[in-house]
Amino acid sequence: MMKVEHIGIAVKTFDTSIPLYEKLLNTTCYKTETVASERVNTAFFRQGDTKIELLESTDPDGVIAKFIEKKGEGIHHIAFEVADIHAEMERLRSEGFVLLNESPKKGADNKLICFVHPKNTNGVLVEICQEISG
What we know:
Blueprint: E1 3-11, H1 14-25, E2 31-35, E3 40-47, E4 50-57, H2 63-71, E5 74-81, H3 85-94, E6 105-106, E7 111-116, E8 126-131
Parallel strand pairs: 1-4, 5-8
Antiparallel strand pairs: 1-5, 2-3, 3-4, 6-7, 7-8
Domain VOC: 3-131
GO molecular function: methylmalonyl-CoA epimerase activity
Protein name: Methylmalonyl-CoA epimerase
C-alpha cells in the first residue's frame, strides 16, 4: 500500500455537508460524481496530498443510508492507494483477509476499488484503490 488515498465520510445530504466541509477545510469541492452501482453520490475535497470523499446515499436502502441509520454520519472508510490492485487483493487473501469484492470494481474518481471486510481490520472498513490508466 502506497499511501492513504482518501478518507470517506458518510453524510445525510450534500446540501448542508458540502458547504460545511468547504468552510472547515478552507477549500472548495472540486468534483461530484454519482456511482450508480454503489447507489451513492460522492463529493471530493483536497488539501495537499490528502483527499476527503463525502458519501451521500441515492437510495434509502443503500449501504450509506443503512450506515447512517445504524451509526450516524461520520467516517465510513479509509482508502489506500495501491500500484496493482489484483496483486494486492491476492496478497490480502493469502494473509487471511476477507474481501467484500471477488474482483475490483469501478469506483468514483477514476479508480478501481475493493473493500476489506471490517471484521478483519478491528472494525475499520478499508478500501484499496488503483487509478484506472488510459
